[in-house]
Amino acid sequence: MAGTPFERHAIKELDLEIPSGSFVSILGQTGSGKSTLIQLIAGLLEPTSGTIQVGPYTLKQGGKQSADVRKHVGIVFQYPEHQLFEETVAKDIAFGPRNQGLTEKEIKKRVEMALEWVGLPSSFADRSPFQLSGGQMRRVALAGVLALAPDILILDEPTAGLDPQGKMDLLTLIHRLHRDQNMTVILVTHDMNEAAKYADYLFVLADGTCRLHGSPSEVFQKQKQLTALALDLPEITRLIHQLNQKVHPPIPTDLFTIDQLESYLLERLRKVENV
Amino acid sequence: MSQIAIGQYIPGQSLIHRLDPRAKLLFVFAYMILVFFSNHLYSYTFLLAFTFVAMFLSRISLRIFLLALKPILFLIGFTMIFHLFLTKGGAVLIQLPIMTVYEEGLKQTVFISIRFILLVIMASLLTFTTSPMDLTDAFESLLKPFTRLGLPVHEFALMMSIALRFIPTLWDETEKIKKAQMARGADFESGNILRRAKSYIPVLIPLFISAFRRAEELALAMEARGYKGGEGRTKLRELHYTHYDVWLVIVFIGLCIGLWLLRR
């Protein structure tokens, strides 16, 4: 669309590095360029300028390596259950591996592996994906991507539209995959709680460029900047801030789960009692 | 959307944009009939000149009109060749061993292509300067008398506006599903036609499912808001004829007279 009135730069002057094997989260409001960024990384969009390095592959305008990159990057779009199309769960999950040209035996193994990873019993394999519940359909769609055995897994708001329990289950599952399979995970979200709890490193995008980055504790210390970008602090950080108005010495703000905060407070209480 | 196509609306404030959509619709309809009454080089020049003035008044760049003509160039070329070689009459212009080109054939070739161009440009002018909403309203309003004959005019217009409304939505959806399947290794570009058509199954099935889901949701939302068809329903935006539309009628009468004088 270059040169027309419809031209718009979704991303500009963006320079970031995601270490392999890490769990990073990309935060930002709607229209901040998150979706464009992940599609660039996944080799689904071609950059009009600049380059993207994914492992040994370089993506640039007119480059030919996007097909190679796609073999290593799995991308789960928003509402991935809308891409299901096969008659059975197993056939749908097998779509990716089959396109990779694997043998029937390997495909079968991949399907079983993916079903297990997403926590669905193997009895689901022969059911129609369209008769499952929303949460189950999403797991099947996720399994369809995981069956590619990607090195990098990109998730675009994977928990949108799920109930709180479903959200937590899904993220725990992704985190376990990251830990056990050493998968690089890029989680796009605008839920600060999810980002704080699971990611090692955060990138905050606004207007197509990276405004803030760092570990969750570093990023969430910059409350003013976050507010200026219309982003919130995680609930737990807000709670700690409120508590700190009453207690001294202040509670550290790098605690991002209720369990961490609980054990910290218990220990502190014990110390006080011992004195 | 990646390119400007025939039916695209291009917002603007020109004289043509401000005409009442009903008047425009009727005018274009009548004009298309009028084009077929033209049979002379002078009358075609007359109509061409009028069309150019209309194009100029719409303040839409010539480039966009050329883009609209592009898809039918093939059709024009095809009919041109047929007329050039198959129409007989008048003096022989070129004598080839297999076929002969007659004077009448050359004449028809030029006329037919001008006729095509006139029709497409006028139709494009209508869609370029009239929003789909206005166009459907105009349809509904003009066809209203036929309700008495049992024609479901309102439902017809509603179907039309819903279809138009969902073209961009479904287009976006297609792109999204296509990308998702591409990420799973689907290949839409290589192989023969049959293979390529088959490769679109993983896109089409989810697309149909989502279209049906959307339709169901829309129906539910409409019912929830008390929609019960066109009877007794008032409109938020009503169409009004203005003095510009009177001028359009005068222009049309002028065209008819001009054509009649040039026809003889």
Task: Describe the 3D structure.
The complex is a heterodimer of chains A (275) and B (264). With 275 residues, chain A is of the alpha/beta class. Chain A has two domains: 23-230, P-loop containing nucleotide triphosphate hydrolases (Rossmann fold); 234-274, no CATH class. Chain A is built from eleven helices and eight strands. In chain A, the strands form two sheets. Chain A has a six-stranded mixed sheet with strand order 4-5-6-1-7-8, with helices on both faces. Chain A has a two-stranded antiparallel ribbon with strand order 2-3. In chain A, helix 6 links the parallel strand 5 and strand 6. The N and C termini of chain A lie far apart (70 Å). The model of chain A is unreliable at 1-6 (pLDDT under 50). Chain B is mainly α and 264 residues long. Chain B has a domain at 1-130 and 240-264. Chain B has eleven helices and two strands. In chain B, strands 1-2 form a two-stranded antiparallel sheet. In chain B, helix 3 packs antiparallel against helix 11, helix 7 packs antiparallel against helix 8 (153-183) and helix 8 crosses helix 10 (201-224). Chain A binds chain B through residues 1, 39, 42, 44, 70-71, 73-75, 77, 80, 82-85, 95-96, 98-100, 130, 144-145, 148, and chain B through 2, 173, 176-177, 179-187, 201-202, 205-206, 209-210.
